[in-house]
Amino acid sequence: MSLTNIFDIAGSGMSAQSIRLNTTASNIANADSASSSTDEVYRARKPIFSTIQQDVMSQALGGQSSQMAGGLSASQGVQIDGIIESDAPLDMRFQPDHPMANESGYVMYPNVNVVEEMADMLSASRSFQTNVSVMDSAKTMMQRLLTLGQ
Amino acid sequence: MAISFENALGIHQKALEVRVQRAEVLANNLVNADTPGFKARDIDFKAVLGGVQSGQQAGGQLAMSTTNGKHLPHSGSDGTAGSSELLYRVPSQPSLDGNTVDTQQEVAEFTKNTMQYQSSFHFLNGAFKSLNNAIRGE
Q1: Which residues contact B29 (CB under 8 A, 6 or more apart)?
Q2: Chain B residues 73-102 with CB within 8 Å of chain A
Q3: For residue A75, with 0-12 CB atoms within 10 Å meaning exposed, 13-18 middle and 19 or more buried, which class applies?
Q4: Does B33 have pLDDT greater than 50?
Q5: Which residue in the set A74, A78, A140 is minimally distant from B31, CB to CB?
Q6: With an 8 Å Cβ cutoff, are B81 and A65 in contact?
């Protein structure tokens, strides 16, 4: 029953978007976390999205598809491959009075771009909404199917 | 006279199946709207349903011959299934990360597909109702 696949697909999208929202929240929260050394300073975190490739191999090898177009979907949903730290240049500010200042008087601030993070946040929440409505449609279709012949 | 479900339900049961498959493909596009390099896909409903129909009527379509064990089978060439090739959508505007999903377009297609699913369902349900009436003889 491929309608249930839609639940898996939309669910994978929702979980990926919520991880993305998590990194955004973490980035914004730490946007002003100062540090005295380049090693310890917080760096913006970004999730890496990738498509879950599932049936590609079975399709290429002519896998026994029992139902009509069994190997139809070349991919099934989205996953997060990993979370990387941005290597954008750090924000160095000259603040000799700051308790975290190093010997030359500089304080390291994270390379978080708050404007970019806000845009990312909006995009993530919109995509989440889209996935919710897809799942809702699939649910309606399935409920409808259960009333067949009544 | 025996009741043939195949004749009574007609094309609608196949149409419903293809609608579900298309919903799956479109859901997959929507879910990958933020995946870099993802190419939006879709199925040609008419071609798939046409493949099903011609497969029903002619008992199979022209298949490419695979003369070597290493030949990859052309999807749908086995005659039993409709040609359900996944096509790629032509992008309406370029994007930096190589993603070709236009969320608005996909949502519109998904909604349209859901409506068409409901109409196919309606026809199928009507067929079942007629069968019921025939059985009851009212």
Answers
A1: B40, B41, B42, B89, B101, B106
A2: 73, 75-76, 81-82, 84, 86
A3: buried
A4: yes
A5: A78
A6: yes
Q: Which of A126, A76, A142 minimizes the C-alpha distance to B24? A: A76
CB atoms within 10 A of CB B95: 12
In this structure, what token pair is assigned to residue A85?
């730290």
Structure tokens at B55: 């497969």
State the 10-residue block means of pLDDT for chain A, 150 residues long: 85 94 95 89 93 62 42 73 92 91 91 94 95 94 88
Kindly determine whether residue B28 and residue A76, on different chains, have CB atoms separated by under 8 Å: yes
- Between A96 and B63, the more confident residue is A96
Task: Give residue B44's pLDDT.
Answer: 86
* CA dist list (Å): A49 to B32, B84, B99: 8, 27, 12
Note whether B80 and B73 are within 8 A (CB): no
pLDDT digits (tens, 9 = 90+) for A35-48: 888 888 999 999 99
| A144: nearest CB among B76, B111, B121 | B121
Of all residues in chain A, the one with the smallest CA distance to B118 is A141
Quick check: B107 and A69 CB within 8 A?
no
Reading the block at residue B129, the tokens are 């109702």
